[in-house]
Write a structure and sequence with these properties.
The protein is an alpha/beta fold. It contains 29 helices and 31 strands. Strand 24, helix 20 and strand 25 form a beta-alpha-beta unit. It starts with a strand and ends with a helix.
């Protein structure tokens, strides 16, 4: 039966005596009696051996440096082993030293002798770790991988898999229930000469031996906890991935992962072996598992290469056929870009660029390759995920002038940017696509009819909104005039009324602001769907605490000018948003239109209209067939008016809306600057509601006279708000007007609002916006639109 686990330890995991002890502890606590172990050279031993070669080749003294290296190994032996075992290893080390001196003393060394020399580090590590395990009562032997792995020579040794598999299986039979510590980095040709497996060869040794031995799990123990969704040395909030598919891991490795290497992963494609990447310094922590059957990563991964080689060329042949030929020859580009029918750009690492150029030269006749240009001015930024397509739009929006368009394949998005911009773009892509989702909390201030309609709309639209924003917008608070429910866990929008009834508590502003401040969200947006003047007065406190505001409440936008100016000034102190489209025209895009006119360079000269659905209904119905007062009572019975109809008939609501629009186009007006001609006589303005309703017939005569006058002139009467700037003079008025029957104010659908805007661009044919200007659903929709706008603004890169 094959062992179930292979552990691989790199040089950093074996750097000193404490590291060796830590590795032994891991093997005793995380393994089994028949586990295999593959080791690299301890610390920087291999680099040291190459340095000795460089010294000899340049005719410099190397003896002192050799002694430093031997002393390092002797110290490890002395610190880790008892005297008897240590004596044996010291003697073997002395023999090795003599062999090194002999090899270094040669005037000319062949490749096999060089390979033998630089692989002493792996042999020392395997020998020492096996001895340490034996001293701790564990059956263990060290094995030289040249006795296991047989390869044909080449630029990179090509493993003879079946022959190597047979040797490994035979070794396992001879060492049953024994831990085998195997040298990484090396293999042998058919006559036993040492061959090197190249860069990251020890990791490749580990996965290769695991695959050939039929082992279920290979763990690479290193100095990091696993694979992160970005380089944690460059991105502070990079997070550890718990899982990764083999295909994603391979694509990530090719695009510059600091942890994974593509060659290490190749043996796993032909075997049912899972690969774990763990920290030998924190073996108890979470880690990354790369499973052959895993379909997707837990999150997208962002990576980069500080510099790549961009090869641009013209060709007459097929670009797809050329790309296939490059792949068949083992020089697949990191990414490619086709420009038109005859231009192609290819991105390569420096290691492959020279090989690619040589191959392109050989293929130049077949594909009529010409005008080849090479640039090293670019770096690469990429996102890897089996769901890469989900992030394409967000990724592309971050690309500015000077970057290459997004290259997309099944597993990745890739772009090239000027080298100096690599780190900044990497951070932006991580923050936008792979970082923690921004959490935007929403607090609803007002749970009446419009508030209920908004929650219902939010419930139906939040999933799509979160998907579009790639953020998490959550309802965290509900407030009525008397009680509040604030929950950092979020409020279930399907059962919010029950939760509110059961859990809401009486509230006051100091405690409310304390609770809001404790919410764990990146941004907080309050929705004022009340008509509370007291709440409006606390807007400065909301803004001071960084809370954004959506207002259906008209009182802040139409409040005293000094108060309004102060609110606007606070918005300039930080990245803070206040939108109040719902305060005028409900869901009609009136303020959007005014802002668009301003942004286009236009100048608004006049705004007029009927801004009250109630007054529109009354005057569309009023034809003299019944008294006006009777019509008001009918409208009240239908729920069209406010509970006190004077709130509509006074015109004060339209006056406030006109003030909001005037300020929106830059006019600094007070409410009193707008003349108001109320439909409610002075003698009825202050009486009780019951008395007013009892005397409502006193409205009839003035309205009947106005109607008769209008009919005599072939006109109709409408209650109109009007602001006009002419010749440097401003006139603003809300009053009853006589208008022609073909005027935009006439022939409205009862209950509609209409806004007529005259500007420098819209002179003889004014801009008209018409539609429902009241109602719980359209007002709730306007609030939701403002909320979505603020969320998008918050998620824009600064």
């Amino acid at each position: 039966m094959a062992p179930s686990h292979l552990h691989k330890f790199g040089g950093s995991s074996l750097a000193d005596a404490d590291c060796y002890r830590r590795v032994a502890h891991i093997l005793l606590t995380h393994g089994h009696s028949d586990d295999l172990v593959v080791v690299s050279a301890a610390g920087k031993t291999t680099n040291f051996l190459y340095k000795l070669l460089e010294l000899t080749d340049s005719n410099q003294l190397w003896q002192e440096e050799l002694q430093v290296l031997i002393s390092y190994q002797q110290n490890l032996i002395e610190q880790l082993l008892s005297s008897d075992t240590a004596r044996d290893l010291r003697e073997r080390l002395s023999t090795d030293k003599a062999q090194l001196i002999s090899l270094l003393g040669l005037e000319v060394r062949n490749t096999y002798e060089v390979n033998q020399l630089v692989s002493f580090g792996e042999r020392w590590s395997a020998r020492l770790l096996a001895a340490l395990l034996r001293e701790q009562g564990v059956a263990a032997s060290h094995v030289d991988a040249t006795s296991l792995l047989v390869a044909d020579e080449g630029a990179v040794p090509q493993i003879r898999k079946e022959e190597s598999r047979s040797r490994i299986q035979a070794c396992l039979v001879n060492h049953a229930n024994e831990r085998l510590v195997i040298t990484g980095f090396i293999c042998a040709n058919e006559v036993g000469d040492t061959l090197l497996l190249g860069r990251n060869g020890s990791d490749f040794s580990a996965t290769l031996i695991a695959a050939l031995a039929g082992i279920e799990r290979c763990t690479i123990w290193t100095d990091v906890e696993g694979v992160f969704n970005a380089d944690p040395n460059k991105i502070n909030d990079a997070t550890l991935l718990s899982s990764l598919s083999l295909e994603e891991a391979d694509r990530l490795a090719r695009l510059g992962s600091p942890v994974l290497h593509s060659r290490t992963l190749q043996p796993l494609f032909d075997a049912d072996v899972s690969l774990a990447v763990r920290s030998s310094y924190a073996s108890h922590t979470d880690f990354t598992l790369i499973a052959p059957q895993s379909s997707s990563a837990s999150a997208p991964v962002v990576t980069n290469l500080p510099q790549v080689v961009l090869i641009s060329l013209k060709l007459s042949g097929s670009a797809d056929e050329l790309l296939n030929e490059l792949s068949n020859q083992g020089v697949t580009p990191l990414a490619n870009w086709k420009q038109g029918q005859d231009a192609l750009s290819l991105a390569y690492t420096h290691e492959l660029a020279e090989q690619a150029m040589s191959l392109l030269t050989g293929l130049s006749d077949s594909f009529a390759v010409q005008q080849v240009k090479v640039s090293e001015d670019y770096g690469l930024v990429a996102l890897v995920s089996s769901g890469a397509n989900l992030y394409r739009r967000s990724f592309a929006r971050l690309l500015s002038r000077g970057t290459l368009p997004v290259y997309q394949d099944r597993l990745s998005l890739v772009t090239l940017v000027p080298r100096k911009a690599v780190n900044l773009l990497t951070q932006k892509v991580h923050r936008r696509c792979a970082g923690p989702r921004k959490r935007i909390g929403v607090v609803l201030l007002g749970t009446g009819n419009i508030g209920q309609a908004w929650v219902d709309l939010f419930r139906r639209s939040v999933k799509q909104l979160n998907s579009e924003l790639e953020a998490s917008v959550e309802l965290l608070g509900l407030l009525s005039s008397r009680k509040a429910l604030i929950s950092d866990e979020g409020i279930d929008v399907d059962n919010w009324q029950q939760a509110f009834e059961q859990n809401a508590q009486p509230w006051g502003y100091p405690a409310l602001f304390e609770q809001l401040g404790a919410l764990k969200c990146d941004e907080l947006v309050a929705l004022d769907i009340s008509a509370s003047a007291g709440l409006t007065l606390h807007y400065p406190e909301f803004f001071a605490r960084g809370i954004h505001m959506v207002s259906a409440n008209k009182l802040a936008g139409s409040g005293p000018l000094a108060f309004y100016r102060d609110l606007k000034r606070q918005l300039g102190f930080r990245r803070l948003f206040w939108r109040y489209n719902a305060s005028c025209g409900a869901g009609l895009p009136v303020q959007h239109a005014l802002n668009d006119l301003h942004n286009s360079g236009d100048r608004v000269e006049a705004i007029g209209g009927i801004f009250s659905g109630t007054l529109c209904w009354l005057f569309e119905q009023y034809d003299g067939s019944k008294p006006f007062g009777e019509l008001v009572l009918e409208a009240k019975g239908l729920g069209i008016t406010e509970p006190d109809p004077r709130d509509d008939l006074s015109g004060r609501d339209m006056q406030r809306k006109l003030l909001i629009l005037a300020r929106e186009i830059g006019l600094e007006l007070e409410l009193e600057d707008i003349e108001l001609d109320s439909l409610v006589p002075d003698n009825l303005a202050q009486v009780s509601l019951d008395e007013f309703l009892g005397r409502i017939d006193e409205l009839d005569q003035p309205l009947a006279e106005a109607l008769d006058e209008a009919k005599a002139e072939g006109k109709v009467i409408r209650y109109v708000a009007q602001l006009d700037q002419q010749d440097g003079k401003l006139k603003a008025r809300v009053a009853l007007e006589l208008v022609a029957t073909d005027h935009p104010y006439a022939n409205l659908t009862p209950g509609d609002n209409v806004f007529v805007i005259r500007s420098a661009f819209y002179q003889n044919n004014p801009l008209i916006i018409r539609g429902p200007g009241a109602g719980r659903e359209v007002t709730a929709a306007a609030v939701q639109s403002d909320l979505a706008h603020i969320c998008r603004d918050l998620l824009q890169e600064q």
